[in-house]
Design brief:
Layout: E1 2-4, H1 6-14, H2 19-26, H3 34-38, H4 42-45, E2 53-55, H5 60-69, H6 73-80, E3 91-93, H7 101-104, H8 112-140, H9 142-161, H10 166-194, H11 200-224, H12 229-240, H13 243-249, H14 254-260, H15 264-278, E4 287-289, H16 304-313, H17 315-339, H18 342-345, H19 349-371, H20 377-391
Helix pairs in contact: 2-11, 5-6, 8-9, 8-10, 9-10, 9-12, 11-19, 14-15, 16-17, 17-20
Length: about 400
């Protein structure tokens, strides 16, 4: 009888790492392709076309204002606030047949902040959901939570595509943000816990490219579809593509069974299923699974108070947590700040997103070919933080 930890058993499955083996490890993060289509698509769906209109010949006040200020937000809102600018009577939008909910629901000028609510509700829902996500994964399992939340994400995705009014979209989008972030987090946990140690970094880095792919897909979909609702439909359909693997192929994390459920038999069965998925001939019947940490430290369900006590007892953990929180806060603030602002920073919204995607592809290549290959994770973190600081 051979004694192995879960990590050692996973490492023995990988053998000679080939392209197909690596792809089998990273497929479960491909759900991130749908992320941009359902999260940052409001940049296209709610685009405010202040420079894409013209006065109708019978509106003398409109012509005079344009002559004074040109076609601009100041010109449009200045006339609109005087209640003299009526679409179809005084002016006409020049959107090439495209639709935007900013125009459909009049989210312009003094009502523009309501459009911001639509974008922000996604992250409000995500923040609330992530506070309970870890408890859900530990209590019900990573796989089961991912399966349920993914199905709910599909339903909510289609519901967002056909909203009857503004507040409906804000509420549904907030709920979707929470559910989708739980699903996405679960996929990351499964990737980490089902991937051999030597492949974890590569799998996660290559998996991140799925988000970048989603940005290219978003720019293309926004250009192809004149009605913003079909962008949400496409995003929901992209999540549907991942239903079969997550429902029928992916095993539950053996670490969950072994650590949280104390069920060695179930952990072995999960490992066997994963071995079949990878085409490995490892024999797990004669393997005795052992904990990688002391038994008294594994599988213990901790309350929030216990977590804070643990940080107090081990200040180095608290230090690392604070550093990573600050780094992620800075990176997230800048990344999403720029992502949702390309409509005002660039003249062509579609081209701006394509260029942004190209920049991310270059960054991912550098990460994968240099930082990941040389295991320079600390240097990568320093470069990311320095870049964000310069942008601020």
């Amino acid at each position: 009888m051979v004694s192995l930890t879960i990590e050692e058993a996973l490492d023995s499955m990988s053998g000679n790492v080939g392209v197909m083996v690596l792809l089998k490890y990273i497929w479960i993060v491909t759900m991130r392709i749908s992320g941009p289509l359902l999260s940052i698509s409001t940049s296209f769906a709610g685009y405010t076309p202040y420079k894409q209109w013209r006065c109708l010949p019978n509106s003398t006040d409109c012509e005079a204002r344009v002559e004074e200020n040109g076609i601009s937000r100041k010109s449009f809102c200045g006339i609109k606030n005087q209640e003299k600018l009526i679409p179809g009577t005084d002016m006409i939008w020049e959107l090439g047949g495209r639709k935007t909910y900013a125009v459909d629901w009049d989210l312009l000028c003094d009502r523009e902040y309501l459009g911001t609510f639509i974008s922000s509700s996604y992250f409000v829902g995500a923040l609330i959901a992530l506070l309970v996500a870890s408890s859900l994964f530990d209590r019900f399992g990573r796989l089961r939570v991912c399966q349920i939340t993914q199905i709910i994400s599909i339903v909510l995705g289609f519901m967002m595509a056909f909203p009857p009014n503004l507040w409906y979209l804000i509420i549904i989008r907030g709920i979707f943000g929470g559910v989708f972030f739980i699903t996405n987090t679960g996929y990351h946990i499964l990737t980490i816990e089902l991937t051999p140690s030597k492949l974890k970094g590569k799998a996660m880095t290559i998996g991140l490219s799925a988000w970048t792919t989603g940005q290219f897909l978003l720019a293309g979909a926004a250009y192809a579809f004149k009605d913003w609702k079909y962008i949400f439909v496409l995003g929901a359909c992209m999540i549907c593509l991942n239903l079969y693997p997550i429902l029928c192929l992916v095993p539950e994390s053996p670490l969950y069974y072994f650590t949280n459920r104390k069920d060695e038999f179930a952990a072995k069965e999960a490992l066997k299923k994963h071995a079949r998925l990878l085409g490995s001939d490892i024999d797990l019947d004669d393997v005795d699974l052992v904990a990688s940490v002391p038994e008294e430290d594994s599988g213990t369900e901790m309350s929030l108070l216990d977590v804070f006590k643990d940080f107090w007892k081990h200040p180095i953990l608290l230090k690392h947590l604070v550093i990573l929180l600050l780094v992620w806060l800075k990176c997230g603030w800048l990344y999403y700040g720029f992502t949702f602002s390309w409509g005002t920073l660039g003249k062509n919204l579609h081209l701006s997103y394509l260029l942004n995607g190209c920049g991310e592809v270059i960054a991912l290549c550098i990460i994968l070919l240099y930082f990941e290959k040389r295991k320079k994770y600390r240097l990568r973190l320093c470069v990311d933080t320095t870049a964000c600081t310069f942008l601020i």
